[in-house]
């Protein structure tokens, strides 16, 4: 029987991966993430190379999309990398860290000759399995409540969390899966468009009304998802579905 080791099992993404694995009847081991990071984890995998067949790492579309020619080069695919100078210029430290982190993982994998597959989701939205929201759902909750005074001047891809979990399972199990794999619905949208879509459906919530003045995060672009679709992922769930599922979950948990 195959066993899966999922790090950060309490996180938004990993909790859905665990749920998807259990739904498929798999057992998994949960471990707390090693504070020494990717290298330590990959070192352990190297030592257990007889039993560890593959490592699946979650990166982010922020390691792909932040570059000066994003619009011209779109659709961006697995060959594209964010530009560290661009991230520095616009103080996009999350994208900077994700880009460096993913590159480091690839270099360690090459050094140790490990089978690494990297899933690259865009902004993940959908129901949360933990009692309290973290990461991306927390950002959405704040926007719906109008809690921060403004929304980030951000345009990006969005993806249903269940599609991300399904892509992670493909990355783990499909022998043909290799390299980087972008996972994002076909919709790239600005927060203003998301708010416009949601406000008439949820008129009781205030929603942020003011757009922030950040630069460099709203570049029009698109993401090529041919690779994950050819590996067998079912059609991506729509923008409306991912946000409705997330808001329903907030309501059910009394967060809204
Ligand atoms: N959510 C998104 O929209 C999105 C999109 C693309 C990529 N990603 C990537 O997917 C991964 C998981 O994201 P998520 O949204 O599921 O995150 P999340 O819900 O915020 O959870 C973060 C996880 O990372 C652990 N962690 C945080 N700081 C750590 C540290 N210094 N050392 C070790 N572990 C640490 C946390 O452990 P504790 O619970 O113990 O603190 C938790 O398990 C991240 O790499 C993120 O960049 C997320």
From TrEMBL:
Pfam families: Epimerase. InterPro entries: Epimerase_deHydtase, NAD(P)-bd_dom_sf, NAD(P)_dehydrat-like. The keyword Zinc does not apply. GO terms for molecular function: oxidoreductase activity, acting on the CH-OH group of donors, NAD or NADP as acceptor. Residues 32-178 form the NAD-dependent epimerase/dehydratase domain. Keywords: NADP, Oxidoreductase. Gene3D superfamilies: NAD(P)-binding Rossmann-like Domain (3.40.50.720). Belongs to the NAD(P)-dependent epimerase/dehydratase family. Dihydroflavonol-4-reductase subfamily. PANTHER family: NAD DEPENDENT EPIMERASE/DEHYDRATASE, NAD(P)-BINDING ROSSMANN-FOLD SUPERFAMILY PROTEIN. This is NAD-dependent epimerase/dehydratase domain-containing protein. The lineage of its organism: Eukaryota, Viridiplantae, Streptophyta, Embryophyta, Tracheophyta.
